[in-house]
# Entry
Amino acid sequence: MDIDGEKIVVDGGVWRTPNRPIILYIEGDGIGPEVTRAAMRVVDSAVERAYGSSRKISWKKVLAGWEAEKEKGTRFPKETEEAIMQYKVVLKGPLETPVGEGWRSLNVHIRMILDLYANIRPVKYMRGLQSPLRNPEKVDLIIFRENTDDIYRGIEWKHDSQEAETLRTFLRENLGVELEDDTGIGIKPMGKHKTQRITRLALRYALNNGRRSVTIMHKGNIMKYTEGAFREWAYEVAKNEFADRIITEETLQRNPVPIGKLLVNDRIADNMFQQIITRPESYDVILAPNLNGDYISDAAGALIGDIGVLGGANIGDLGGMFEAVHGTAPKYAGKNLANPTGMIRGAQLMLEFMGWNEASRLIDRAIDRSIADKKVTQDLARYMGVEYLGTKEYSDVLTQYIASS
Ligand code: NAP
# Structure
């Protein structure tokens, strides 16, 4: 079926969004269909409220996961891959990945098709969540985690393998490095190109979305030529390519940040962990290599008390995939009990990359209001001691709030 609309063009990380963009969606497994449909309804109502009839998303469904298996006999049909290569922007419900055996992660597969090198996770407190912090409302972070480099590339050898022995010998004979015979070896590659492309993305996002600062998180005091280099290469982009729009902490000294400038600073990883707990208000966008980014994303999520309400994105220079952080929650599947907020947050990031920030802000306000009015799904209602709304009824409330705002 032909669909009325145009492709979003993402060129070198810069998005050009037509007024009627075609966006793919994958409903996903388990609670996926319910939360994905709820998110799409909320997005549609926010876009309509913000732009009237001048802008509208043309959603195009593609199959993956169990639904695809049933209809096409494969979890990831060729048509889905082709559509992703063509349209490049996807809202994706959670997809099941079995532990230990079975098929490989479809999420990872989609990331590879589009070279989605940045994993982005906003973490913002919502009233009513059971946070372990005394002042959780100060948490409003967004983490940019490099997704393709670092120790996670999986270049490693078991301690008793021939390869490890070959490497130990090479290191001893050529570089004077002596390792014990029972040492496994992993390689930590970190490249300038990969560091600088995600730095550009984080800085551009921070500037386009009125964020206050970008903090480079690294362990460069110990790992000088990988994490230390990450810090240097990131500063290089900030100073050379964004000179008129940023200010570094070093230049600033102790003066306040001039109006209209984005602060760029850096923190050593261990310090970063304690500071997001003790002084979350001092941090805003955090730019991290793969391993640090993995850890800090979950630690930040824990600060607000519930990862079920977090969304995320995987972004590359050609496009992006937007989703909830949570999985398929099979026990709630088809019961109208899932909270769609994580999916909605993922969709908000999509709107922000599209440059449709007004619509995203309308959704923010509607979610804040629904929580203030204690109109929430069961996962939050159980902490608040109130009657809960179903997935569908909760999204009805959000669309009503958006329409009347
Ligand atoms: P999960 O699906 O996130 O669910 C774990 C628990 O979190 C649920 O039992 C429920 O807890 C709560 N929960 C998560 N999302 C919720 C929502 N929207 N509304 C209400 N409660 C929610 O994690 P999992 O059980 O580890 O993973 C299940 C499957 O999902 C696996 O196959 C995994 O591979 C996949 N997965 C996919 C993605 C993805 O596609 N991006 C991400 C993560 C996991 P209570 O029991 O406390 O109510």
Notes: The radius of gyration is 22 Å. The chain has a mean pLDDT of 95.
